[in-house]
Automatic annotation (TrEMBL):
<keyword id="KW-0963">Cytoplasm</keyword>
<dbReference type="InterPro" id="IPR010987">
    <property type="entry name" value="Glutathione-S-Trfase_C-like"/>
</dbReference>
<dbReference type="GO" id="GO:0005829">
    <property type="term" value="C:cytosol"/>
</dbReference>
<dbReference type="InterPro" id="IPR040079">
    <property type="entry name" value="Glutathione_S-Trfase"/>
</dbReference>
<feature type="domain" description="GST C-terminal">
    <location>
        <begin position="88"/>
        <end position="222"/>
    </location>
</feature>
<dbReference type="InterPro" id="IPR004045">
    <property type="entry name" value="Glutathione_S-Trfase_N"/>
</dbReference>
<comment type="function">
    <text>Is involved in the conjugation of reduced glutathione to a wide number of exogenous and endogenous hydrophobic electrophiles.</text>
</comment>
<dbReference type="InterPro" id="IPR045073">
    <property type="entry name" value="Omega/Tau-like"/>
</dbReference>
<dbReference type="InterPro" id="IPR045074">
    <property type="entry name" value="GST_C_Tau"/>
</dbReference>
<keyword id="KW-0808">Transferase</keyword>
<protein>
    <recommendedName>
        <fullName>Glutathione S-transferase</fullName>
        <ecNumber>2.5.1.18</ecNumber>
    </recommendedName>
</protein>
<dbReference type="Pfam" id="PF13410">
    <property type="entry name" value="GST_C_2"/>
</dbReference>
<dbReference type="InterPro" id="IPR036249">
    <property type="entry name" value="Thioredoxin-like_sf"/>
</dbReference>
<feature type="domain" description="GST N-terminal">
    <location>
        <begin position="3"/>
        <end position="82"/>
    </location>
</feature>
<comment type="similarity">
    <text>Belongs to the GST superfamily.</text>
</comment>
<dbReference type="GO" id="GO:0004364">
    <property type="term" value="F:glutathione transferase activity"/>
</dbReference>
<dbReference type="InterPro" id="IPR036282">
    <property type="entry name" value="Glutathione-S-Trfase_C_sf"/>
</dbReference>
């Protein structure tokens, strides 16, 4: 019997985009249910009663929450196609070594994915939602963080090596928000972090990424309206 896969999602969400990319990389067919930001769908409340947030992957009636947990679940369940984690035995052994230090039996890649999850999201939120004085500190740290990730990338094609991997999927969805970052934060990511920008372009050459990410301009317009609703001055517009 064919698997029933449903994704509860919201189109501008970088976290939902992670799941969309992972499903596309694996070639998994799924039914996408768009949630409403202004109200909580009964299905969402049923499937994620604790946090009541998207994304939620429902696989054969069972919910999986948290975007990185979902991506890892997708890798574990459909591990016979297009791996998102290293296949080399040594690399997997190294990943297990780092797992004890980083997060309960997770791969080395999970360390950087979690770093992206916590650090980038924290700074991302401050850059586009904060007042000017708070933004200045966040902007500097945001660029420093991207430069650190550039160092981690090194001369590799992707963070996962020659193939798109776990960390790439965790990070690249933020690209859709770059226009908002740059406008509200007075940033120029391309000039400040050229290696990072080149990596983004390589990711976008993959159909699984380009078709899973929302348009930057559409996200920017969405963020303008959201800032208004949050009562944040339109600094930098």
């Amino acid at each position: 019997m064919e698997d029933e896969v449903v994704l509860l999602d919201i189109w501008p969400s970088p976290f939902g985009a992670r799941v969309r990319i992972a499903l596309a990389e694996k070639g998994i067919k799924y039914d996408s249910k768009e949630e409403d930001l202004s109200s909580k769908n009964p299905l969402l409340l049923q499937m994620n009663p604790v946090h009541k947030k998207i994304p939620v992957l429902i696989h054969n009636g069972k919910p999986i929450c948290d975007s990185l947990s979902i991506v890892k679940y997708i890798e574990d369940v459909w591990n016979d196609r297009n791996p998102l984690l290293p296949s080399d035995p040594y690399q997997r052994a190294q990943a297990r070594f780092w797992a004890d230090y980083v997060e309960k039996k997770r791969a080395q890649a999970r360390f950087w994915a979690d770093y992206v999850e916590k650090k980038i999201f924290e700074l991302w939120s401050k850059v586009w939602t904060s007042k000017r004085e708070e933004q200045e500190v966040a902007e500097k740290e945001f660029i420093e963080t991207l430069k650190l990730l550039e160092d981690q990338l090194g001369d590799k094609t992707y963070f996962g090596g020659d193939n798109l991997g776990f960390v790439d999927i965790a990070l690249v969805p933020y690209y859709s928000w770059f226009k908002a970052y740059e406008t509200f934060g007075n940033l120029n990511i391309e000039s400040e972090c050229p290696q990072f920008n080149a990596w983004v372009k390589r990711c976008l050459q993959k159909e699984s990424v380009s078709k899973s990410l929302p348009d930057q301009h559409k996200v920017y317009e969405f963020s303008v309206e959201l800032r208004k609703k949050l009562g944040i001055d339109s600094v930098g517009i």
